[in-house]
Prior knowledge:
The protein has helices at residues 33-41, 49-59, 74-86, 110-123, 141-149, 158-166, 183-188, 192-200, 217-226, 257-270, 284-296, 310-322, 332-335, 355-362, 383-393; strands at 6-7, 64-67, 103-106, 131-134, 153-156, 177-180, 207-212, 231-234, 245-251, 277-280, 301-304, 327-330, 345-348, 372-378. By secondary structure, the chain is of the alpha/beta class. The chain folds into two domains: 14-238 and 442-447, P-loop containing nucleotide triphosphate hydrolases (Rossmann fold, 3-Layer(aba) Sandwich), CATH 3.40.50.300; 245-417, Rossmann fold, CATH 3.40.50.300. The strands form two sheets. It has an eight-stranded parallel sheet with strand order 1-8-2-7-6-3-5-4, with helices on both faces. The chain has a six-stranded parallel sheet with strand order 9-14-13-10-12-11, sandwiched between helices. It is globular. It starts with 5 loop residues before the first strand and ends in a 69-residue tail after the last helix. Adenosine monophosphate binds at residues 20, 44, 47-48, 51, 70-76, 339, 341, 367-368.
Amino acid sequence: MTNTATEINIPSGAADSSTPSATITFADFGLDPKIQKAVSEQGYNTPTPIQAQAIPHVLLGKDLMGAAQTGTGKTAAFVLPIIQKILRHASSSASPARHPIRALVLTPTRELAVQVAENAASYSKHTDLRAAVVYGGVDMKEQVATLRNGVEILIATPGRLLDHIGSKVANLSQVEILVLDEADRMLDMGFLPDLQRIIDLIPAQRQTLLFSATFSPEIKKLAQSYLRTPVTVEVARQNAAADTVKQVVHMVSSADKQRAIVKILEARTRQGLSRQCIIFTNSRLGCARLARALERDGIKAGAIHGDKSQGERTLTLDAFKSGAIEALVATDVAARGLDIPDMPCVINHELPFSAEDFIHRIGRTGRAGSKGDAIALVDDGEKRLLDDIEKLMKRKLEVKPLPDVKTSPGQPSDPFFYMPYESGAAPKGVDAVKTAEPEVKKVGITPAKPAVGALLGGFKKK
Ligand code: AMP
């Protein structure tokens, strides 16, 4: 299939993808009152730009390519119209035959799958539609029972879905809508063969939606193969971070990075800012080590990486959401899809090898219109990675040197003492970071969500 994409003209000023769109309301979409009720219960007043742009097209049955960064509200942009479109199939019958899979959402990671499934469950809670999630790394039994009972909206990671298809528990022959969420990441993770096998099992007469933070040539190729004359919705500047994120680079040697983090957090405390932050590392080992080292420095830290079991990840994430952990040290794969609204600060302990991962990382902050700080600790050996990032983002990142002063912990003479996010006069000889206004921000960490483990077997309507 060869396709031409239709570009939507986004009105100027709508380029900030994270703030709600002022002109359109949820009522304008003509969504069923059951869906609207769920939306207002979420506390959403106005659609975000990606929602404003995407929902009408999805409702019209169009294939769609959405360039949307994490935190722009993209999940509701596809889940809400999907519920509307398959609502006609909703049935109160207990018979599994009345609940075939109508919509399939594929995601690269279990965390993102769980997140999407939570959204699908809350947006559909006033309907008779069922949502469930399946992903690898956990026992299949509960998932099998859920699938056998029947489910209209299935969120899945590709490998585990293929397992269920192989054992004839999942059948995709009645799927009407397919979503490839964070498609760029699925390709990065080598899921292309799995995707091809899955898509071959879905009727050709389907609607396909593809979401990706970036539109790389590989993504465009994927879209060409599987989407039909897609509409392209691109509400943020391509390959750019949300405008609400304030970015700063500090050149710090590897050996000094851990201490720099401690000082950054101390400085945030002094400023009345939240200490809650996500710290990205490139390796699982480095992630675990850094979390332990920060703990020794008196910082409440937790690690989330691929070697952790699902149960451990869930516990750590819940502790982070409740505030019991203030520094969540994470690798890219593990952090993917974590929904932590109003994350005030993201620290790159080292730069990722792929520039696109940098955009995903800093997409953890500045979400849905909130302000955030993204701090990168860069040593000399990482300058080339920094170049790649700047090329992709099409902008130079501001490099702020840490003050070159004598050491004495907590004092201006301390090499790591500096005053981020403070516009007031810096102590003499200290080059205060000027990228952020003074601001005392209360962090809106959401209360811990229902135990993620409970999601294994699908969702109960509340
Ligand atoms: P997402 O990009 O789907 O991960 O969404 C990011 C965050 O924005 C989530 O916490 C959503 O609950 C929230 N959100 C989504 N849509 C809206 C909206 N219209 N108004 C306010 N918050 C929203």
